[in-house]
Amino acid sequence: SAPQPDEASLLVVADGVASEQGGEVASATATTYLTRALVPFLAALAIAGSKRSYAGSIPRALDRVLREANQTILRARAAEPKFRGMATTVVCAVVADDILRVAWAGDSRAYLCRGGGVTQLTEDHSEAAKLIHAGVITPDEAKFHPLAHVITNNLGRDDFQPAVKGWRIQ
Known about the structure:
This protein has 170 residues and is an alpha+beta fold. The chain contains four helices and six strands. It has helices spanning 23-48, 51-79, 127-133, 139-142; strands at residues 8-16, 88-96, 99-105, 111-114, 117-120, 163-168. Strands 1-2-3-6 form a four-stranded antiparallel sheet, with helices on one face. The chain has a two-stranded antiparallel ribbon with strand order 4-5. β4 (111-114) and β5 form a beta hairpin. The model has no long low-confidence stretch (mean pLDDT 88).
């Protein structure tokens, strides 16, 4: 069911980067960190009941918390040599006040399903997506392109940059 006006829903998916050691650890670290940081934040907003606070603070919180999760993964990589290359893609969504806010990195995707249709909301952070955007290849060609699975942004990178967007879902 949809959240009530003073409630919020949190959804998190993290997919450890398969070619890197510790992908499973990175994805578990990300989901645990994001959940532990965002659940109390969203509960405090719900208690405050201020719709204005939802509008501005959720995107900033998503950006901040993803950056913090990235730093947590980088520290774990530095502390444990066997996890030197660990990384994860992530998509994190908050639904509050009829607005879906999504933060992501990598090729973990968010879709909106309504009215019998499915719309992809996020854009992949991959070499193939860059080539599609530049008009070099088509989406169908990207499926079999040698760079199809080369991720350009994920948790576990020094140059990590979360993407954050919002959509009204009434």
